[in-house]
Amino acid sequence: MSNEIIQIFEYLENERGIDRETLIDLLKKSLREAARKSIQQTREIEVKFDERTGTFRCWAKLFVVDKITNPSEEILLSEARKINPAAVCGDEVACEVTPEDFGRIAAQAAKQTITMGLRQAEKRNVCESFKDHLNQLLNGIVVRIERGDIYINFGQAEGVLRSVDKIPGEIYDLGDHITVLLTSINPEGTGPSLYVSRVADDFVLRLFEREVAEISSGLVEIKGLARVPGCRSKIDVATTQPRIDPVGACVGLRGTRVKTIVRELGGEKIDIITWDKDIKVYVTNALKPAKLASLEVDEANGVIRVKVTEDQFSLSVGKKGQNVRLAANLTGWKIDISKVETQEVEEPCDFAEQVRRAIESMGAVPGIGLEAAELLVNNGFASIDGILAAEVDDIAALEGIGRERAKEIIEAAAASLEQ
What are the pLDDT tens digits along the chain (419 aa)? Predict the structure, then answer.
């Protein structure tokens, strides 16, 4: 039995990654409980293990008395002096009480306790290895589906994507590769070790950090996010670097970056807007793609009152009110939208509207397009004349443009004046 125990220790230590001290403590606990049942001992029992021989010995602390009234807690003075010749009545001595044979019940109790303890020890080890991944992305494989919950294998551990944490409408099959956000770790008790989510706001933020180098490096900052999982998200970004377009960086060349994120989210629409400390500009950006007729800030009541023409009303509110609700969540202001007759609309003169008009005008030029127009205007090239006055290298230096694209833009600008 002793050699068998040592072999089990070596296997569990080397193959299962559980340190020997933990194993010995668990086995002592199981044997202590088994010994209590076998010898009916109620006083404190200590189990000692000899790692060299693989043997266990049980000891109980008993009170020294002249006459025994409670055999489970007392020992006669004459017997105590065989252990400690200096013992006197009232002392406490450690007496070996190792059973000759634990028997079937004791062995079964030890086995069950060890098995349970080893599972918990393994679970704690796994959770310890994943603690640095909390609130980070994990990639795994779907291994089973039970009552709508998705169980995922992450290699060292198994996690669960509960039905409430799934993006509505998504369907998974066994063997599917899946990306999730680790939201909590369960080191104790029953149930999976890891709980993950695809509906948490941080899931979208981590995807942007993964796909957009400027965000992961700190050049572009995500200021806020509002989301209806599976439908639509609004995210606002900013930068302290004047030559970086934060929206363009997130969108990527020809939209490659944001398209990758949208695919991961199962087609969820993403609006990327520029954050601004001016609340008027900020709310105007947040309500895009709608065009506003006017905007009034009621700071006393924390309300932004917006007026739009009838053709822009449904666009500003959005499907089931999503656009205005997400804009309100993003900005932290209550937004009231009302219609206004077209003839009542005053010509906007604020800076944000001027920028919007410049982008639309330049974006309509064949060969330039809205994406390049937004990047150009935000970097000071606000007109066709401004483009023609610039050097090729000035435009080529903009994020995602390059020399060949810069030449195309200048040629397109020149061609538009000839028409």
Answer: 456 666 666 766 776 666 667 767 777 777 777 777 666 666 677 777 776 766 777 788 888 898 888 887 888 888 888 888 888 998 988 887 777 665 455 456 556 656 666 666 667 777 777 788 888 999 999 999 998 899 999 887 888 999 999 999 888 999 999 999 999 888 776 777 789 999 999 999 999 999 999 999 999 999 999 999 999 999 999 998 888 899 999 998 888 899 999 999 999 999 999 999 999 999 999 998 888 988 999 888 889 999 999 888 888 898 888 999 999 999 999 999 998 875 454 444 566 777 788 888 887 888 888 888 888 888 877 778 778 777 788 788 888 888 888 888 888 887 776 55
Residues 23 and 109 occupy one common structural domain = yes
> Based on the domain organization, do 162 and 182 belong to the same domain?
yes
**CB environment 197-226: b (16+ within 10 A), e (fewer):** bbbbbbbbbbbbbbbbebbeeebbebbbbb
**In-domain check, residue 178:** yes
**Residue ranges in 252-401 assigned as alpha helix (H):** 256-264, 279-286, 310-317, 322-331, 351-363, 369-378, 384-389, 392-396
Q: What angle do CA 77, 92, 47 make, to 5 degrees?
A: 115
The answer to whether residues 122 and 20 belong to one domain is yes
Residue type, 189: G
Domain assignment of residue 409, yes or no:
yes
pTM: 0.60
User: Which residue reads 């800076």 in tokens?
Assistant: 351
Residue located via tokens 């890891």: 194
Residues 6+ apart with CB under 8 A from 305: 295, 296, 297, 298, 336, 338
**Residue span of the structural domain in which 176 resides:** 134-199
Classify residue 312 as exposed, middle or buried by CB count within 10 Å of its CB (0-12, 13-18, 19+). Answer: buried
Cα end-to-end span (Å), the chain: 97
Any idea what the CATH number is for the domain that residue 306 is in? Answer: 3.30.300.20
Q: What is the CATH number of the domain that holds 76?
A: 3.30.1480.10
Q: What CATH number has the domain bearing residue 382? A: 1.10.150
- Same domain for 102 and 218: no
Residue finishing a domain among 128, 147, 171: 128
189 found inside a domain: yes
